[in-house]
# Entry
Amino acid sequence: MNRYLPMRAALIFLIAAMMAGRGASAEKQRSGSGPLPIPPKPGRGFSISLGPQLYGTREQPLKDGDIFKFIDGGGVVYLQYGFQAVVHVVFTDKNKNDLTVDVFDMGSDAGARKAFADESICADGWRMISVGAEAKSYHFEPDYFLYFVKRRYLVYCHIGDDGMSAFLNEYANALFKEIL
Amino acid sequence: MNRPNRSEIIRGTVTLALLLTVAFSGVRAAVRTLSEAKSWVITVRSPKAVDNRGQADAAEIQAMLEQGLRALSGKATAGEAWMTLGLKPKDIVGVKINCNNWTINLSPQPELVAVLADSLSSVVPLNNIVFYDMHKADLEQAGFKRNATKNGVRFLAAETDARYDDREKLTEIATSLCTKLINFASLKTVYEPDADEPYEASLHFKNQIGSLTAEDAPKCHDDADFLAAILARPSIRQKTILNLCTGLRASYKRGVPWYWGGIILGVDPLATEYVALQVINEKRTLEKAKPLGLSPYLTIAETKYGLGSCLPEKIEWVRLER
# Structure
């Protein structure tokens, strides 16, 4: 056996541990209160087709960039309310239905509530429903989507086929109760 | 040589008059979009183009595009119209589309993209047609699979399929690969904190943000001059032959869509943007929302960069309803 092999293995392990540690500290530095919650699969045959993507602020971009890369100039209003980061996931089923979930970390409970109340984010024309919390739901054929708030998170859920609106409501309810 | 008799003189005069009429009307038709004092903008709407669930009718959209091109150019066919606009058989034409799907899908309908490619192919080979946007993920979410092969219409992502030109700070798809460009925007209203009403339209100027480098793109959000100057960059200014806007599905508030069921075509980017803005404002008025004003970048684009005109008296808006 090559006598340098254990040393080489130890060196590789050390470098890998240092790199992993760097990634973890970057995430810790981002949130200040734990990592962003990653939305789970909704069931019914949906699987991840995009993401999870992570976007941060211009000063502190995350893995996939900053909020402007995610939603162009519309990101400005989120920043006004303390936006820190967003996780974006798209699930797709075998019928090519897309279900999108965005969890915005608004930095504080108050920031999330203010964002929820701002028409620039949650446009008028909503119908209030309950998904554990009050949610603003929108039906623009064939789209159905909703927003709700839990603690510092503003959550957006969308499905491209409004025939599955009840399913989206159930998923949002599960997110509210069990995930965030 | 025999002198012509009276009937021959009359016949000759009538023939000459007819020839002159045809010739002058042809010339007028051919140049009206390019050199008359007024910029022509055509809107074509059809209640059959898209239903209230977003299902587009490709045959109807094809008829709309052809009608729009004929009206804009004064030519009898789409192929002749493209040639009048400056397209040549050896051109590679880049079509900048806007595939931002957040929060509702306002990306160009695949049916309209296919119809446009088919129409362009009356002049150039299919592989010389390049649809592009900044991000591959956005293209795919909008239903356009990347194709960088030598077969068929190409779909490219500026961020990953090309480098950026050092001098113009634009994707080389626009500066090097393509010899002609089409600015294909979506009729969309977005949040804009600096506007009087905190909304403005995102049309042809903002569409070309996707041709910029990732470092430059955010500068457009708080610098009207920077945004205005995008269309004045040499490659975009010199190569763009058409500004096209889809309003099959549009938004009149951020995130609030409606099915306008129309397309907008013009050579002058400012005039086309102005008309698109009026289409949004007609809907906003119906919905009792304050009309959107002219954003500062439009004034700068007109007065500083001479890109066209958004003065209503300099615009000939031709409304076609099917």
Observations:
- Chain B has two domains: 1-31, 37-321.
- The first strand of chain B starts at residue 39 and ends at 45.
- The radius of gyration of chain B is 21 Å.
- Chain B touches chain A at residues 52-54, 100, 102-105, 135, 137, 141, 190-193, 198-199, 202, 206, 209, 214, 217-218, 220-221, 253-257 (CB under 8 Å).
